[in-house]
Write a structure and sequence with these properties.
By secondary structure, this protein is α+β, with helices and mostly antiparallel strands. The chain contains 2 helices and 7 strands; from the N terminus they run βββββαββα.
């Protein structure tokens, strides 16, 4: 993991790369201003998750620079490349400020987001065809996410099974030692 980078010069938006993008990855540009992200947001003070796309395996899409998200996201996502995962720490003045966003985000809250830049896309027209294409593209992204989540869950289960098997072997050895007291050497 790399050190945190102060993206605003005043400590308002800090970025710490969790996973680097591939060297040839693209990032948002004037021609590719629409971004798709996967994220989880927590309150710095309590560590409580207040929003996530992980639970329902969705992708959040927005256009950079249009003010449709908190300032910290507009700042941070401009610096990311597709495939990159970063922890973004957002001071209140770059998030929801003194108003907060009740009921989940209290006033003057510092937020920490783990954000993955999934894709950068050109601005689309509002034709029915492009809306249909966008829906298809988002469904495909959702399927990819579900497959990745299922694979991750399967790997987690294998690790848990391996731990349980190891614990059972250790317990069996302990039981054998207890049962073998006074009868000479055990196995």
């Amino acid at each position: 993991m790399s050190d945190a980078i102060d993206l605003t010069g005043d400590g308002g938006v800090l970025k710490k790369v969790v996973r680097h993008a591939k060297p040839d990855a693209t990032g948002p540009t004037l021609d590719l201003p629409l971004v798709d992200v996967h994220y989880e947001g927590v309150l710095e003070e309590t560590g409580e998750v207040f929003d996530t796309t992980h639970e329902d395996n969705t992708i959040f899409s927005f256009e950079i620079g249009k003010g449709s998200v908190i300032k910290a996201w507009d700042v941070a996502l401009r610096t990311m490349k597709v495939g990159e995962i970063a922890k973004i720490t957002c001071k209140p003045e770059y998030a929801y400020g003194s108003a907060g966003s009740p009921p989940d985000i209290p006033p003057d809250a510092t937020l920490i987001f783990e954000v993955e830049l999934v894709a950068c896309n050109p601005r689309k027209g509002l034709s029915l065809g492009s809306a249909s294409e966008e829906r298809t593209r988002l469904e495909e992204l959702k399927k990819q996410r579900e497959l990745a989540a299922a694979t991750k869950e399967e790997e987690k289960k294998k690790r848990e099974d391996a731990k349980a098997a190891a614990a059972a072997r250790i317990q069996a050895k302990l039981d054998a030692k207890k049962g073998g007291k006074g009868k000479g050497k055990g196995k």
